[in-house]
Q: What sequence folds into this?
């Protein structure tokens, strides 16, 4: 069981590099057809620096380039096979494109129980910054753990 | 898509996904870096008390995001969030709909609140989300 003493713990930085070919693969898997997500020339003509990372991609980036991307969850005692994603919010500050190198820092914002302790909710906030330490996006996540 | 149709109640995009199959779940695991076996390995799913593998919530959110990128240039999106109401399952076809809820002026920028829903073709809700979209710049015409 995850306790409220986890609140305030900070994990990271995790690092990830946005790769053009990985972005193309992601676009194909998710059925994205707009050409700027597939072709760097089209993207540049539309004013992007390179192929843009789609709206949910920053979530993936940390997982793709980190050997143990969920070490924070394990460290606070989340039984991962019993965890479900409850909600997810992205707040965008700067465009993210192929070639960008981002770093992520995750903070445990809240931990609370519902249904008499049957469910534990874990709320995290991750800040994503670029190579010049500028904030590019924030990711707010709620994990729900079904306790035994 | 022209800004004139961005009025409360207007549907600004509707995107239908391909039927979700196990291959897509495996490919998404590779594309996203989320290798949790409950999405790709039936044995692991059963071990976790599930009848079958379930789709990644973030895969469903990526499919839902296509209703947004269909309607606007991504640079116009200020925020995008969703609740995961029910896991997506093998066989699901997601109908993703973006509807304008309200418009307001934020520091001189017209901003639309957009409701985003993903449901199966039989009307079972999977995701219920919301986005804030800036209508001042970056609108796709």
A:
């Amino acid at each position: 069981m995850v306790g409220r003493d986890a609140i305030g713990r900070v994990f990271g930085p995790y690092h990830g590099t946005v790769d053009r070919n990985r972005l193309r693969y992601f676009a194909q898997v998710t059925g994205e057809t707009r050409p700027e997500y597939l072709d760097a020339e089209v993207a540049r003509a539309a004013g992007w620096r390179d192929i843009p990372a789609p709206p949910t991609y920053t979530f993936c980036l940390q997982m793709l380039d980190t050997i143990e991307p969920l070490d924070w969850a394990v460290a606070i005692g989340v039984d991962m096979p019993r965890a479900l994603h409850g909600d997810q919010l992205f707040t965008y500050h700067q465009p993210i494109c192929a070639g960008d190198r981002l770093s992520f820092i995750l903070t445990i914002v809240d931990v609370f129980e519902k249904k008499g302790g049957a469910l534990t909710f874990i709320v995290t906030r991750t800040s994503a910054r670029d190579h010049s330490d500028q904030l590019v996006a924030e990711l707010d996540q709620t994990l729900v753990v079904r306790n035994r | 898509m022209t800004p004139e149709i961005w009025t409360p109640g207007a549907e600004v995009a509707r995107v239908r996904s391909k039927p979700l199959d196990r291959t897509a779940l495996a490919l998404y695991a590779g594309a996203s870096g989320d290798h949790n076996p409950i999405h790709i390995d039936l044995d692991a799913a059963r071990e976790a008390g599930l009848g079958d593998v379930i789709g990644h919530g973030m895969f469903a959110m990526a499919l839902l995001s296509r209703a947004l990128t269909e309607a606007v240039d991504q640079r116009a999106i200020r925020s995008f969030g969703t609740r995961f109401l029910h896991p997506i399952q093998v066989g699901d076809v997601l109908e993703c709909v973006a509807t304008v809820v309200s418009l307001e002026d934020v520091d001189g920028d017209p901003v639309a609140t957009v409701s985003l829903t993903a449901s199966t073709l039989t009307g079972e809700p999977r995701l219920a989300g919301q986005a804030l979209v800036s209508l001042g710049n970056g609108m796709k015409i």
Q: What stands out?
A: The beta strands of chain A are 10-17, 83-92, 101-114, 119-129, 135-146.
